[in-house]
Amino acid sequence: MRRFIYLTATAVFFAFSADGAALPVAAHFRANVQPILDQYCGDCHEDGANKGGVTFDQFKSDEALVTNRTLWFNALKNLRAGLMPPAKKPHPSADEMKRLVDWIKYDDFGLDPKNPDPGRVTLRRLNRVEYRNTIRDLMGVDYDTTEEFPADDTGYGFDDIGDVLTLSPMLFEKYLDAAKTIVAKAVPMVSRVPKERVIAGQSFSQDGAWGSLWLSYYEHASVSKTLHVTNGGPYELLLDLAATEQFVEDEFDYNKCRVIFKADGQELLRKEFIREGDKPFHFEFKHDFWPGGHQLTFEVEPLTPDQKRPRSLAIRFDSVTVRGPFVEKYYVAPKNYSRFFPREVPAGSSARRAYARELIAAFASRAFRHPADDGTVDRLTRLAEDFYKQRGKTFEAGVAQAMTAVLGSPQFLFREENVEPDHPPGTQPFVDEYALASRLSYFLWSSMPDDELIQLAAKKQLRANLPAQVKRMLADSRSDALIKNFTGQWLQARDIETVPIDSAVVLEGDEHPDPEITKMRARLHELRQKPREQWTEGEHAEAHAIYLKLSAARSKREFSLELRRSMRHEVEAYFNHIVHDDRNVMELIDSDYTYLNGRLARHYGLTNLNVSGSEMVRVTLPPGCPRGGVLTSGC
Question: 41, 70, 79, 11: which is closest to 463 by C-alpha?
Answer without folding.
Answer: 11
